[in-house]
Amino acid sequence: MNAPRTFHRPALPGDARAMVEVHYAAVQAVDRSHYSDEVLAAWSPPPDAGRRHWLAELISRDSTQCTVAVSSPEAIVGFCIAIPEQALLKALYVHPGFAGQGIGQALLREMEARCRALGLESLELNASYNAVAFYRRCGYEERGPIAQQLTDTVSMEAIRMAKQLAGLA
Prior knowledge:
Elements: E1 6-10, H1 16-28, H2 37-43, H3 49-60, E2 65-71, E3 75-83, E4 88-94, H4 103-117, E5 122-127, H5 132-137, E6 141-149, E7 155-164
Helix pairs in contact: 1-3
């Protein structure tokens, strides 16, 4: 599937506002049969200054790789975050208005290439139930269930997945 006219660029701390909005919209669009309202609220509470500040700080770290997908006119429609020193894909979200157009796959391929160039042989992630099939199609294998802590009192069931990056072009 061909992606719409978008381009990728490294995320900047000033992109945090738009990225938090994309994250919130994407989580709100998740199939409600997978997670309770309590989990969804903890996974992505309404955008606020605290979340924007946290994300801007994460983007600013040298240890973070972060790419955004931008459509015209300069609207961020998706993003991908990895922490190479942990061999971890931390986040991949596409605004639901742009879902199914290849943006997520393109962001993921680019991040895998960046991680491979940094010397990583594999990449792991915690996939929400709604994303497992997507990651399978992209070559990730299930390692087993995991409970991802969202707040002090709320955790989210997910599937740990991994992909070997060595030898991929």
